[in-house]
Every structure is written in C-alpha cells, then in structure tokens.
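Course exercise 7: structure representation. Students receive a sequence record and must write out the corresponding structure in token form. The form below is the worked example handed out in class, using tRNA pseudouridine synthase A (272 residues). Read each field label carefully; the graders check that inputs and outputs are placed in the correct fields and that the protein name is recorded exactly as given.

STUDENT ID: A-19
EXERCISE PROTEIN: tRNA pseudouridine synthase A
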Amino acid sequence: MERRSYALRLAYDGGRFRGFQRQPGLPTVQQALEEALERLGVRAQLHVAARTDAGVHALAQVVSFSARAALDPAALRRGLNEGLPEGILVLDAARVGPSFHARGSAASRTYVYLVGAPPPEGLRPYAWTLPDARAFPELAEVPPLDAAAMREALGAAVGEHDFVGFARPGEQRGTVRTLLRAEVVEAGWAPLVAVVLEGKGFLRAMVRNLVGTAVAVGLGRAPPDVIRTLLATRGRYRGVRAPGWGLTLAAVRYPDGAWPSPAAPPDPAASR
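STUDENT ANSWER:
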C-alpha cells in the first residue's frame, strides 16, 4: 500500500521538556508529538531536522514522517494542536515528496543564542544571564561584552573544520562540519547580544561550546584567537559550556523546491 510523506514545522518552549528525543520517564517533544499523532490514528517513525537538547527552544523545528493514511495538512495541524501539551505549537503541515527527509534533506540549520548582562525580564527564560557564578565565579560584576572580540573569535570557525574539540567527549568520528556564518548582533536597547550560527550540521554540544568560548572572549577571560588555536591543534575546549536555555533553533533551510520554504515564516496566530 502506498505510503504518503508529510512534514511539520514546530515551535516549542524547551524549558518544559527534556529535549526533543524520547527518554523513558521524562517529558520530551518527540513523545508528546507521537502521542498526539496516535490520537489521530497515525503511528509513524519521526525524523527530525535537529535533536535539540534539554532546555533548548525552537522557532522552526522540522519533523517528517510517512503514513498510509491520506491526511489533510490543515486538519492535521489543527488536530495536533488540539492534542499537544502547552509549550508546543504546530505552525505548519504539508504533504511532501517521498524523498523528503527532515534531517537528510536540510541544507542548513540556524541557531540563535541570547546572552544578557542581564537580559530583559521577559527574555530571561530564553537567554543566558550574566553574571553567572557557576560559569565565571571570579566575576562578581560583568563588564560589557566585547562584541567585536566575540566576532573575531567566532570568525575563525567559519568554513569547514574538524570540530572534535568542541564536541562532547567521546565523539571522535565524523567530526568535520561546515559553519556557513557566525554573527554577533548587539541590541541597542538592552545589554543583550545574539550569537547567530548557521551550518550544514552541528555536533552535540558544538554550538553551546562555541558560544561559551565566545562569551569568555567577550568578558576578557580568553584571547580572541582561542577558537582558531583549538581548531588548528584539535585541542579540546575545557572552558564554559553555555546553558541550554539560551539556545533556540531559529530556522532550517531546504533546497529550492523542497518544503518548507524559508522565505515566508508562518503566522503563529493563524495556526490554532
């Protein structure tokens, strides 16, 4: 019997879940989505564009699956949103071609990491708040982040490199990745910076270790050439790992003609 392929674009508050991937006895996005699909009569293996860790948020996560049922995308989106717990929203649903794969078809993923000293109150659940005694116990007060030094440090990571030193220990194979861009954007209205990293793919903990290194540079705790040196020597990063709650998967881009299109983000208000 013919199987049809579908894709979903999700937004979720990572603070409510222990990551995307299902874990026994813990609330995860995958478990919530699978249970909502089952209530609609759909049992399917899910493929996800990026397996976000505990606390990590998403504005445009993509999930694909195949099913024998002929599903109406609009009805599928509405039915899932009715059955999903608070903190997860299906922004869009679509029928896609049989070769579409949320992870394998993706051309790039873009992450945004917020750092505030401190951030505005409404952004605190989604940003790393400085000062942070756990990460920088010697800094009772935090000087303004040197965004220019952070840009210099992260600029060394753009391109194809072996990022083994920024991966979780033990991840020794397949550690070459391509970082397409690295930006540090300063807010003019608050002591807040956004680190934007776009790459073809990322290792586990790679983004958070790069951000942790850049923040150390921005605080004057590490030299601007630290990332360049670690990449050249394949040395292991032994500094601060940025906490998960400051990280958001902001976009997943696919080649032209594949779903979803990166050009026009959906209106969340129209998704319920």
